[in-house]
Give the backbone structure.
Amino acid sequence: MAASSVVEEQTTKDDLILPPDYELQAPEPEHCPGPESEGAGKSDACNGCANKDICESLPKGPDPDIPLIIENLSQIQHKILVLSGKGGVGKSTFSAMLSWALSADENLQVGAMDLDICGPSLPRMLGCNKEVVHESNTGLTPVYVADNLATMSIQYLLPEDDSAIVWRGSKKNQLIKKFLKDVDWDYLDFLIVDTPPGTSDEHISINKFMKESGIDGALVVTTPQEVALLDVRKEIDFCRKAGINVLGLVENMSGFVCPSCKGESQIFRPTTGGGKAFCKELNIPFLGSVPLDPRIGKCCDSGESFLDLYPDSPATDAILDVVEALRDTIEGK
Amino acid sequence: MSDEPSEPIASLKKVKHIILILSGKGGVGKSSVTTQTALTLCNVGYRVGVLDIDLTGPSLPRMFGLEEQSIFQSTEGWIPVPVETNGAGSLSVISLGFLLNDRSNSVVWRGPKKTAMIKQFMVDVQWGELDYLLIDTPPGTSDEHISIAEQLRWSNPDGAIIVTTPQNVAVADVKKEINFCRKVNFNIIGVVENMSGFICPHCSDCTNIFSSGGGKELAKAYEIPYLGNIPIDPMFVEMIENQSSNQITLVEAYKKLSISSNFQQIIQKVLDKKLEPRC
């Protein structure tokens, strides 16, 4: 099957989950102001574009959904984004750990939202990837991992575990909006938002949609090597451009202790000084480093809490220290 | 969609093979595998081009030690940045990283801009004669992937090498990528399991940090070829990070690493398939 027909086929299938607000007739031109922007249909690039009429007729001005989002999130005390420009550094792992650690306190209500639409990992790590969410007239009810830990992810909406979500950005944006507007979180002390790697649609949208509800800030995750720091640098630049407060940086996978000989090695060698030097250079708080422990990966695969199962691991101590430092930053202000 | 090409891409006319490096998961080593594939093919004597379509997190300029370089424009189009190989094949790279003024600048682009950029890479880059063009991709199955699939629709690419790490969390995302390949008709050349075990430099015991065997099981479950596994080798990262102070070329330095023999076996399996050249 050819690429375009796939995209079309996917569109019709997706409609079961999410009806599109509008359908463009052609791809947006290079200097497209964006179909939802103030200048849609009016800019120079719009002349001759097949979408001109569609864009012109779309509602303009402030997004009418923003007040609905503010209303829906009004009972959430703290909202934390977990970000990293780089993939596979442990954003979801850390989001899961943070959720487990915070919800260990029975007096706290915690929510974890997975914005990684093409590669959702959070449900598996929290041990609920087989759960299914149905939409009702009150919205989407999150999946409860524990009495005080609720989660939402696209994984719960997929017909099959390994269905590929072949979506362009505009479709992802609609789902993100839906998650913010329609998920019935009720009261939460903390909402943790796990994001995909990069600085693109998901990141622009979550900031745009949530900004007025108040985002406490971003926890940035990295690994020690320069190739990862290079991408994380871009993410911090994004945070600054977007006006997102950087709560701090955590360095994951730093150092590995061989279980046979107890010798320590640097698997992802911090040739440029790692997370700590990086934080100093960019003037952001360094929250700590978490060593590699092969059991973390196993726990993530089986959806169990590493913190509960291995309270003696040095990694557990390190994670709890980071969580505490993070809470101090958020609640101290 | 009207913007799609209706014929093979002209700039790829003299490229014999096109291979994409894909993975649903981030940080599994797509760029490392791309780099190693390129270096291994160069060592065999092939002319290799590398295209980086990870627009918001381009890693290849750093991988090849080209961070300060930029793309030159000729009357025919963009000229890929060459890597010194000292006579072993040839190697040139195109990445958005070369077009940024400052390495810490973020590229905050929504889908349509990314699509336009990929199209420009396809139309404007003068690859010339190549034996292999490797396309490194970002994680996921979204704008970049749909765009490259549309662009290559008539260009008959050889297929995709899928990279995974052994743990279930990664394999789950990679399954989605395989389903994507099937939908867009990309042939799957095979699966490579990266970061499969770490050999302790102190006692030589191998620890499976991210468990093991996930790639092989995946290949079996989806009936696709398994190309092999690569252990974590801190020496590789070291070579990448210290290449500016090296006296020898990257191709030569890589040959001396112990993982290069692992990788050679993987590439041999690809070469043994005798994939039909495009031209």
